[in-house]
Amino acid sequence: MAESKEFDPRPWYLLAPSMLAIIALVVIPMSFILVYSFYENIDLAIDRVAFQFGNWQELLTDSYYHTAIWKTLRLSIIVTVLAAVLGYIPAYFIAMTKYRHKWLLLLLLILPFWVSFIIRTLSWIHIMGNQGAINGILMWLGLTDTPVSMMFNEFAVIVGFIHVFLPYMILNIYVSLEGIDENLEPAARTLGATPWQAFREVTLPLSLPGLAAGSLLVFVLTGGSYVTPLILGGPGDFLFGNLIYDAVVVELNWPMGATLSFTLLVLLGLVVALYSRLMGMNQLSKAFG
Prior knowledge:
single chain, mainly alpha, MetI-like fold, 2 strands, about 0% strand, flat
């Protein structure tokens, strides 16, 4: 008869600091937000302690919020797909290049992180605005007599998102490609595979953990953003994060802001759970390993 194993508390001692940090910095604050979502807003920044479902009922019945959720998910998918397509090529080039100073290419990739997120977003006004660089070149070449409207629409929001989040995608894919044995593609070619077949059958599948991790990161960051639509978008280009900003900062309706915040947390959490179901969370460690 096999002896039962004795409980070993040592792993729990090692996990205790991180678990306490998660409880203190994530679980408890989010619990406060959930409780606050049941409060009742009486006037600007005046709330009454109550246990009522008025905020949740408004969220579930008002099509305005449903439209914002759909637009947020749709735009997040578009930005993620475009970032994956645009990011794979430079990531592959950096990983496979024989250039001696590869660190310089990585430095150029990281440089945008040294500039403020808001400044990088505002820069597109000077690029695509009516008096921006693109319109200046088009008018100088005689291709148009009047400025082409490229700002304050969904296109500008997508461009701004890709500009800001593309480095995250490239870095994740690069780390995954860098971990692939460089002899695998030549071996596939010696067995009769064309360069495209070797890439499709060997490199691409092995780089999927990095691609998936980058896609998850870009999707979540896009879904929770509000600055880029606020600066580059028009009145109808709001995302769910903009509704949270308006409820908390503009309307001072904190219970409704708490309701919207917790809803966004649940929606993005479902995406992470779906990723875990399809890919497994261990794939994230592989992407960075």
